[in-house]
Amino acid sequence: MVRKGIPVKKLFADMNDFLDKEIFVNGWIRTRRDSKAGISFIELNDGSCFKNLQIIVEHSTPHLKEIIKKINTGCSVGVSGVLRESPAKGQPIELDARDITIYGEADPASYPLQKKRHSFEFLRQIAHLRPRTNTIGAVTRVRNQISYAIHQFFQERGFYYIHTPIITTSDCEGAGEVFQIITEGEGENFFGRPTYLTVSGQLQAEIYALALGKVYTFGPTFRAENSNTRRHLSEFWMVEPEMAFADLEDDLNLAQDMLHYLISRVLDSCKEDLEFFRKFIDKGLFSRLEVVATESFEVITYTEAIEMLKNSGESFEFPVEWGEDLQAEHERFLTEKKFKKPVAVIHYPRTLKPFYMKVNDDDERTVAAMDILVPEIGEIIGGSEREYRYDVLLEQMRQKNMNIDDYQWYLDLRRYGSAPHAGFGLGLERFVQFITGVQNIREAIPFPRTPGHALF
RNA sequence: UCCCCGGUAGCUCAAUCGGCAGAGCGGGUGGCUGUUAACCACUAGGUUGCUGGUUCGAGUCCGGCCCGGGGAGCCA
Predict the structure, then answer these.
(1) C-beta of residue A300 within 8 angstroms of C-beta of residue A319
(2) Dist. CA A341–CA A2, nearest whole Å
(3) Most CB atoms within 10 A, among A70, A161, A178, A186?
(4) Among A319, A331, A390, A385, which residue's Cα sits nearest to residue A354?
(5) Could you give all domains of chain A from N- to C-terminal order, each with its CATH number?
(6) Is there a contact between A43 and A73 (Cβ–Cβ < 8 Å)?
(7) Residue A214: Cβ-neighbour burial (10 angstroms; 0-12, 13-18, 19+)
(8) Mean of the pLDDT values across residues A447-455?
(9) A430, closest nucleotide (Cα–C1')
(10) Residue A208: its pLDDT value, please?
(11) Nearest-CA residue relative to C1' of B76
(12) On chain B, which bases lie within 7 A of the protein's CB atoms?
């Protein structure tokens, strides 16, 4: 049986409980420094937290003097010793090694990770080793905290977690290109009809919202769009809450509460990781997060946004005209220059949005949609009140030339016990990007899939 | 898919007008009385992405291709 180590995180959190006592730790070596006559310093990281544990190895012990020669960056070890206050600056505690077990060596001549900064492009090529770096380790812990907090947020508010299908038969009109399911033997006929990887769980979530009241899905989604940018993935995770008996205002409030909650939780729980991002990736990280965690969003209508852009005095590459979609440059102006905080743009022209969005009562040209835009990333949440009136929905589907037969089940929800309902979608990786400041979304997911790239 | 930039040692990058391909880090060896990406000395390490062309001579100029990055579109 493998001897269990005390997590480094626990050693730092409760150091007084362990001082001057014999303890055991497991982990991977980050660096080794040999120093003047007979002492080596090794930095051990076990992934439990950002910090390394400094281990002191006295060469006066013949046994250790032999072992230390094999200890290089990347190797895995178990160390027993006495935890002491560190006499030197840089760390409060250190482990005075009595014995070291090497589980797995790492040949320094070929081990790709060095004790220095690597480019993210290089690390992506060794995606199986990059979680051992400071940055990817920290991103992974933050992503975990966000995922956990998402469940907590919705569970605390009475939402039920539902699992919507990965394999679907609808292509959720307007959500981009789809991957089709083909089997080696049956071709596309395995299910007796064409099937696709889901682009969104929303339509199925609506089914359960109109039965359980408040639900959310949280899972992978797939887009076959040939878009190669630092903000797009072919496989990404989405959180999609759906509420019955709710309108656009409820939807906005939920989205705002959620963002406040998630950011606050990460600020509380991942201080060291965030401090690393502030230091090496984004100097303004904390002020940016504080703004989103505490302030209410600026809410403006699409029509107001168009007016603001027209009167801004800015020269835009793309035209600003009512009925035209907001371009990235327009969104950036609103979030980064005009308001300098998240902006919710509501009531878009119905021609720009999918069939399921509710047509506004007071202005039939627009739908009860919302896009929440944040600085740097752009759209992070998209949502709407859903059209719950059978006749209006049917008319919308006809106008968009949809195959009505494929959506009888969806229309049934409006035929039997329909109710006002609303929901939104949050792209998890974009949110991770926003929180950590990593420039490329490929650093926000462990195994990024993009056009032409699928490792492992 | 379009536009722009790039590809030189294991990594990060230099190489002036077309004229002997270099440095730091990493590796190896040796040194150094507690180091903080330790430090000092020595040392090994190259098909300059591939391909065709121009030239006495190409890392450098031209064509084609491959790969990477940034921006745009599409979207979350």
Answers:
(1) no
(2) 50
(3) A178
(4) A385
(5) 8-112 (2.40.50.140), 130-454 (3.30.930.10)
(6) no
(7) buried
(8) 89
(9) B76
(10) 97
(11) A427
(12) 1-2, 10-13, 25-28, 31-39, 67-76
Which residue is the nearest neighbor of B32, CA to C1'?
Answer: A36
| Spatial distance from the CA of A160 to the C1' of B74 (Å) | 32
What number is the ipTM of this complex? 0.88
Distance A106 CA to B42 C1' (A): 26
CB A414 within 8 A of CB A393: yes
Residue type, A441: I
pLDDT-derived band of residue A382, with 50, 70 and 90 as boundaries?
very high
pLDDT (mean) for A349-376? 93
Residue nearest to nucleotide B38 (CA to C1'): A33
Query: Would you give the DSSP letter of residue A360?
Result: P
Residue A335 vs residues A38, A194, A209, A323: alpha-carbon distances, Å: 58, 41, 32, 21
Gap from A107 CA to B47 C1', Å: 27
Task: Encode pLDDT of A8-39 as tens digits.
Answer: 999 999 999 999 999 999 999 999 888 766 78
